[in-house]
Every structure is written in C-alpha cells, then in structure tokens.
Design goal:
Blueprint (H helix, E strand, L loop, with lengths): L4 H9 L4 H7 L4 H12 L1 E6 H13 L1 H4 L4 E7 L6 H22 L7 E4 L26 E4 L5 H8 L6 E4 L9 E2 L19 E2 L19 E4 L2 H7 L7 E5 L5 H15 L10 E5 L5 H13 L10 E6 L4 H11 L7 E5 L7 H4 L1 H14 L5 E6 L10 E6 L8 E6 L9 H4 L1
Helix pairs in contact: 1-3, 2-3, 4-6, 8-9, 9-10
C-alpha cells in the first residue's frame, strides 16, 4: 500500500540508524525516494578505504550524488597499521583524492563543504589539493578548508558567488614554486593520477589574489592569518571575523594591527561588525588595551553593533581593570567577551567556580548586557601546553551563573561562540 509523502517523512524522521535508512531504501519506491534523501543529504568521510568506495559509487550514480547537500572530508590515518599495510599506503594516498574529485563533479546540489587535510594522506601533493575542486558544478553556502593556498583554490573561490561562511587555513601572497595539479588525461587509466613532476618556476601575485568581485555575499570569515583577512574583507559584507596576528614583535604587531583595522573599516556590512575574535601568539595586557582603544577610535563600526569580542587580556591590577571595563562600556550591544587570564596568580581555575563567578559579576557591574564570558587560561593545571576554557553564562530566571570548563582542543563548544551571536 502506497503512503502519503508526509507519512513517509514522519517515519524517516524517526529513524536514527543509517543502516535502517539503507534498508528502507529497498522496501518500496516511496520509501526509497524519501530514505535516500535522508541517507545522502549529509555525508562524513573519515576512513580512506570507505571514502574511496563511497566516492566511486557517487561518481557512477549522478542521481544519488545530487542528493548530497553537506559533505565533510576529514580522512584519518590509522596509527595501528602493520608493516605490510604501510607498503600499500602510498598507492592509497595517490588515488583517494582523484576519487573524491570525480565524486565532487557529480554533486550539483552541494551547499556545504568542509575539507580537513591536516597533513593526512596529502603528502604526495604537499597539501595542494584544490585541484579536486576544478570544474565542480555546485554553488556553496559555506566552505571550510585547510588546503594550501594556490591558483586552483583562488580560481574556485572566484566563481563561488553564494558563499556566506568561509574558513581558510592557509594563505600565500605569491612568489613561490607551485606544483601543477595531477594530470587527468587518458593515460591516467594506466598510470594512477599523481602530482606532476613539472614545476612552475613562480606564481604571479595576481594569480593568488581573489578577484574584487568574488564572494559578494560573504558574511562570516575565519582565517589563521591576518593577511588573509586584510586581503578578503575590504569591499565585502563581512560582519563576523576570527583571525590571528602573524607578527610576534611588539612594533611589528602594532603595525599589523593598524593595517588590519584599516581593512576592517573597508567592510561593506550594512549593520556594522557583529563579532571580532583576534587571537595572538603572545597575549600582553598593554597590547590588548591598545587594540581595544584603536578599534574604538578607528573607522571600524563596532560601538552600536558588536556583540562578541575576543581575545583580550584581563588586567590583573584593579586600576588597569577599571580602565579596561571603561573601554568595554562603549560597546553598547556587547553580550559575549573572551578574556585571557594566564597571567593571574593564583589562577582562577585553581580556585574554582566561585572565582570565575566573582570576576564575571565584577565585569557585569559595568557591562550589564554581557551574558556570557569565556575565560582562557594556559596555566590551569592540566599541562604546560594544554589550556582550559571556562564559560560563565547568566541565564534569565536563574539566580546563579552557570560555569562550565573544557580543555582547549579546537573542538570545544565555546570555540564557535563568535559565529552564533
């Protein structure tokens, strides 16, 4: 008996197992139509062998590939490989990315793509994998990638006119040798595709620069180098930014700050800036004060719009802390702030939740609109190289603030707060 489309959807929405969804695809045409959409709508590719199987299936079945709207590629290497497997591994490295490339060319309705390389299975290409995006038909809404910045990646971004959320883990302004992409000629059937042995001597600056007309709808930008923000933000409606200073010497960092804020002032966001998260290799109290003062005094529209600000050093001295609060008071819509407290001794993390609530309540005396504070500490007693993030949140109707701590590993819930404001 054939059911209504709504009935099929209700049943599918209550199925949690992907195995069960695959089984329902075999029950009837009605179930297959709805179950396939739920099964292939969002894909995560982690295991190398499994990824190759999925990609080959998608490349040979365009109808199924067009159901994919969100894709995450984060190939993991198995540390438990035996010696025999290690000898086979280079071949796997060579052909997994061409298989992914073939599958991507069939995903016409893909809207969200995340490619996390992090050195895994990419050594044959030295991280230069943007060639897998060549000739892809999709128009993305979000794109997150730590691929090497090269001509292929720039060419891809130049034609993506619907991206609203962009993360790039690498940036290069040019003048370095660049391996060509693997040849995809007819000879590939005999010799597996791999990096070409020919090298272009140099890459011109213009070939590594995004076109001024590219990314016209970019609102959220995350980049690990401030140079990328300086190049991308001007002329685009970016209102949320997470980046990091590249310089470490005080004078050089101040010059970098001036150039960065000049670029931020050239953003075209109609409603001003909503979130700024600017990290630093070495946090200093004086520089944090200078950064906040420069931001408020410059042409960056933040006073009546900024909701999230980080990462700033919370001064230890009482007088300096009052001056710091005075600067924050000028940000009338500020509701979330990230503060670095490594210099505090003893660390509030050692004292416990009481200390964090006390610091939070003190700040809220001057900035009552702040409802969430993230305290960052690198001396929280969990290891020299492992920090801790403690979130203090005031929830309406609750008499006491909530306090939650997490290890800094890049995957904590508080890491993405700047996106959510």
């Amino acid at each position: 008996m054939e059911l209504s489309l709504e009935a099929y959807r209700i049943i599918i929405n209550n199925v949690r197992s992907r195995v069960d969804l695959a089984t329902l695809c075999l029950v009837s045409k009605g179930f297959r139509r709805v179950a396939e959409r739920a099964l292939y709508n969002t894909l995560f590719m982690h295991e190398a062998a499994r990824t190759k199987q999925i990609c080959k299936a998608l490349a040979s079945q365009s109808r199924v590939a067009e159901l994919v709207e969100a894709l995450t590629i984060a190939i993991e290497e198995d540390d438990r490989r035996g010696e025999e497997e290690e000898r086979v591994r280079p071949e796997t490295q060579e052909d997994i990315w061409p298989a992914i490339s073939d599958a991507l060319k069939k995903m016409a309705r893909l809207r969200h793509l995340s490619v996390v390389i992090d050195g895994t299975l990419s050594s044959p290409y030295s991280g230069r994998l943007a060639w897998i995006l060549n000739d892809c038909p999709f128009r993305l809404k979000s794109f997150h990638s730590d691929m090497r910045w090269d001509e292929d990646l720039v060419r891809f971004l130049n034609v993506q006119d619907e991206i609203e959320d962009l993360y790039i883990g690498d940036y290069d302004e040019g003048q370095e040798a660049n391996p060509t992409a693997p040849s995809r000629s007819l000879g590939a059937a005999v010799n597996p595709p791999g990096p070409s042995t020919r090298l272009r001597s140099y890459v011109s600056h213009s070939n590594l620069t995004i076109s001024p007309s590219a990314l016209p709808h970019l609102y959220t930008l995350e980049c690990t180098f401030s140079e990328a923000a300086i190049a991308i933000v001007p002329g685009r409606p970016v209102s949320k930014l997470k980046t990091c200073f590249s310089r470490t010497d005080p004078e050089g960092k101040r010059e970098e700050m001036q150039v960065l804020f000049k670029a931020l002032g050239m953003a075209l966001a109609a409603g001003g800036w909503h979130a700024l998260d600017i990290a630093d290799a070495e946090y200093e109290e004086k520089f944090a004060m200078d950064l906040t003062s420069t931001m408020l005094a410059g042409g960056v529209s933040t006073r009546g719009t900024l909701k999230y600000l980080g990462t700033l050093v919370l001064p230890v001295g009482g007088r300096e802390r009052l001056l710091f609060y005075g600067l924050l008071m000028q940000l009338r819509r500020l509701c979330c702030v990230e503060l670095e407290i490594t210099a505090w001794n003893p660390s509030p993390a050692i004292v416990g939740s009481v200390a964090f609530r006390a610091l939070g309540n003190e700040l809220r005396l001057y900035c009552p609109g702040v409802v969430k504070i993230v305290f960052v500490s690198m001396n929280a007693g969990v290891g020299d190289d492992i920090g801790e993030r403690t979130t203090v949140e005031w929830v309406k109707g609750e008499g006491m603030a909530r306090v939650e701590s997490e290890v800094m590993n890049g995957m904590g819930g508080s890491e993405g707060l700047w996106r959510d404001v």
